[in-house]
User: What shape does this take?
Amino acid sequence: MRRRRTIHGTPVHLPKEILKATRRINRKVSTLESCRYDQVYFTPITNMVYIAPITNIPYAHGSFFGVAPFFLYDPEWRDILRQLMPDVYCEVSKRIFVATPRLIHWAENNPVVAAYGLSNEKKTRGRIVTLEWDVFLDPHLVECVENALNELDSMGPESSKDKVFVIEGRLKLLSMRLLEKMLIAHGSTSQLMMEQLGFAKKYNFSRVKRTRRTLGGGIFVEQWLSIFAEALKLGLDADVHGIELPANKSEPIHHEAQKNIRDMTDYPFNANGPDSSKIRGSGDPVKDSQCVASVGASKPRKAKKSNTGFCSYSILEAVRVITEILHGSPGVVLDLKSRNVSKRVWARLINTLRDCGVRVEGAGSFYMEDIRGLSDITFDPVPEMNFFHSAGDLQYACNKGLIQKNDTVYFNAGSLLLQKTIVRSMFSSASQFGLNISTNLQYALHPCAFFKKCKDKPNAKQWHKFLHQHGCSWSIDKSCSTIEDYQEVYQLNIGVYSQEFAIDEVAADLLCRFVNEHSDVFNLGFSWGGVNGVTVKGIQPGLFMSTDGLWNQRYVGKSWNSNLVPGDA
Assistant: This one.
């Protein structure tokens, strides 16, 4: 007998168009598979442990993917995932009994998990946390926008205003299409390497698009926002009414105009492109604008089977729904994964996203040349965020002259910790702190984290008693330069992040307390992608894996050079 889908025993009634849309999933799920993994028993979570709450979270790393263990043990939200993303639900059901890190990693950039984390933060702390999007751009659409921008730049002062008007309208449509087809995905290691090399960009984009969503694959922005909005509605039982979108400097593109561009991007917009005579301007702005809107519609095409998944809202409609539910517009930080894209294309994309009502709180990259000067060509300045794998990478960039004063930088907080050790011997000084040395773990903070506040303490090298009764100390080297030295010289705005699936509760608690205590140095705070103040046990080190939060970034990040000081080349 077929069981009716319910949330906490209450039948869930979704609109027919939404139920139909959920069947168009990224990977086909067979009837046998969906029945087999539909009734998997999720045991209640019992390995929860409290850590120090973070006082300043600039954005949710990985769009709250660290909350995945708590999400999976919530029957209400688990049922929402089953309805909106059945392919993901089936894959997660298969690995429910795997190690905790694998229960977290799948949820990166997942819209339903992001809705769970955002709603939890709003309920418990009354604030809307900014989300992080890892984004890839369609190389073909980038080429279209670039060609249109070049055509606009070629217009001299004697050019017809009507012709400029037509090109500007085409740019708006192309920018919206570029936004709709922007992939929110982290990508695999090989895909990121291919993107860095600039080799076979169109092929690489297609691979990211087709990769499964639980393995770093992508989902288009339009679909992501649609699922996110629907998940918020179901999770918060919100009734959505019509509201006005916030005003912006540039005129927002109406939803009807979004449809007109769908078939216009089969060729680059340049003088040599096919059918270029249809869009070059005839002198009549009304006829030209109608021509721009009808180029794609003039060639009817056969309907293709969609592999793009659930999508019931346009971007504007989804943002309107989200804004009303949250009583505020959603905010995002863009981690630019696509390489070799001009900054003016990124600027057009950011302006279009803001026109749709989304707050773009920053654009970041691990390659500074991709974002340097980006805020100068957007309507409103956008913070340029320089990401680093480790504190040593930040030191190297400063000494090479790549960092400018007042720059915004983020690095992995795990690079502040030395290797974890398990202490199995007793020593006399431990008894006064009440430590069970036979089972406790120890962390030592790197000398680069030995700040002035630490030096002023009467006995800085003593073992400190933390929430979990684990030992911690500084590895003191008075001749070693510190992050605080670089922050003072370059007037840096510093924040940190961590890999939530690769950090144990001891390291997480220590780093949260350390960042909170030294908010004058880490003025941007800790970008935590889990539940604030809570984590799970079970993240344990392995033979080739440490659990300090640094994960594989330890192999690409530079170590701190204690012999260098600010100003050394």
Remarks:
- The chain is about 35% helix and 10% strand.
- The chain has a mean pLDDT of 76.
